[in-house]
Amino acid sequence: MLRRIKAEQLQVGMFVARLGGPWHARAFTRSKFLVASEDQVSQIRSSGVQEVWIDILKGRNAPTPPAALNPWETPEPEPAPVAEISLEAEFGRARELLKSGKSVIGSMFTDVRMGRALEVEGALLLVDSASQSLSRHSQALIALARLKARDDYSYMHAFAMCALMVAVGRNMELPPEEVRDMGLAGLVHDIGKLTLPAAVLHKPTSRRQGEDEEIRRHPSTGYRILNEARVNANIVLDVCMHHHERVDGRGYPFGLLGRELSVHAKIAAICDTYDSLTSSRPGHQEWSPARAMEYMAVRVDTLFDRRVFKAFTRTVGIYPLGTVLRLRSNRLAVVCAQHEAEPLRPRVVAFYSVPDSRTLPPQVIDLRHSDDTVVAFEDPADWGYTDEQLLELYAGQGQPCAAQAIAMATPAA
Fold first, then answer.
1. Per-residue model confidence (pLDDT) at position 77
2. DSSP 298-342
3. Which of 7, 108, 109 is nearest to 52 (CA)?
């Protein structure tokens, strides 16, 4: 027996038979499920769902409201603001999110490879979880999503794209419903690649002409897969088809010019390039975040849109978290926090003496208040450090702490 209730009445233990709301809410309707946690309740409510049909024979019933109260006229409660927390605290939550997200994305990708119908309800909940993480701390999830193993590249690239696109969309103050669609677009933008032979997709050497043509067809293939799944959000379809287009017309599949591309496709092009350059994958050794930013900066107005790239730079920073810098004091330091007003003077953790070729006790330095300055960025691999080791250095160092010595004085010569 089905009963219609307002989304605010949804509780753990209820069996959802159908959801109502905008298209991304309706994407849940092909799956019936038991609501198992408060987190799931929160994510469903925040997805734009307005009303829910529950099966009271399979799950918990809703209490009957007093006769004087019309539940459909209850005022909408104001959404509670998400409290910002420390980088270290959010790393813990982000790790769990990445773990569960890999399972969700892996299941979705397996369905496509097996020719089964694509279900996106799990992906939408994942987008909402990523958005909540970025609200708690703007950088933690993005920093962790960049640390991916070669075997996990396809899954984690999709997740990183989701996080980056949501973050950039927020920075550009796009409408929330657009930002949510952009997050889903990030998750499925490369879904057409799942139909390609693994030998072609993961080939570490140069591809033959025919193989390149196969790769270039993946946006069109992905568009078809999403259409067949009735994912009818224009932003999702647009990003899937056009994330390899470039503003000077040298992209594919259509060679469109910048004026012919949506802002969402331009955002996707930049996020996709950045994450690809900073990731280890077949035929490519990962670049440092700063090297990737430098590479992209000189291609603004040819490959990338200037306005969007500025927003991307504001989002991840000129020196993204985890970037290794050489300071004027001849120390190596890793970026642990950024200052939007002074992007060239981040907060860093100095950890290595170049002249002495030895590690140093970690020291937090806010370059806004120090005479030390940035000389250059460095590749951590050249100094024998992995991204994971650097993360251990800067996790928890993003905010000043009384127990930490923050250098304010002139550095030693």
1. 42
2. TTBTTTB-HHHHHHHHHHH-SS-TT-EEEETTSEEEEEEE--TT-
3. 7
Burial class (CB in 10 A: 0-12, 13-18, 19+), 315: buried
CA nearest 378: which of 335, 336, 326?
326
Distance CA 363, CA 306 (A): 36
Find tokens 């991916």 and name the residue: 148
CA-CA distance, 142 to 214, in Å (whole number)?
A: 30
How is 245-290 classified by DSSP, letter by letter? --TBS--SSS--BGGGS-HHHHHHHHHHHHHHHTS-BTTBPPPPHH
Q: Could you tell me what percentage of the chain is helix, strand and coil, using 3-state DSSP and rounding each to the nearest 5?
A: 50, 15, 40
Other beta carbons within 10 Å of 343 = 13
Q: Apex CA 256: angle with CA 253 and CA 259, to 5°?
A: 150
C-alpha R_g of the chain: 23
Dist. CA 40–CA 56, nearest whole Å: 19
Spatial neighbors of 213 by CB under 8 A, at least 6 apart, are: none
Q: From CA 210, how far away is CA 25, in angstroms rounded? A: 40
What is the three-class DSSP state of 66? coil
Distance CA 310, CA 34 (A): 44
Residues 287, 295 contacting (CB under 8 angstroms):
yes
Digit-coded pLDDT (tens) for 342-401: 999 999 999 999 999 999 999 999 999 999 999 999 999 899 998 889 988 888 665 543
| Domains along the chain with CATH numbers | 2-64 (no CATH), 87-316 (1.10.3210.10), 324-407 (no CATH)
Q: What's the confidence (pLDDT) of residue 63?
A: 66
CA 110 to chain centre: 21
Q: Which residues pair with 332 in a beta bridge?
A: 326, 352
> Could you say which residues of the chain have pLDDT below 70?
1-2, 20-31, 56-58, 63-83, 149-151, 202, 204-207, 209, 396-413
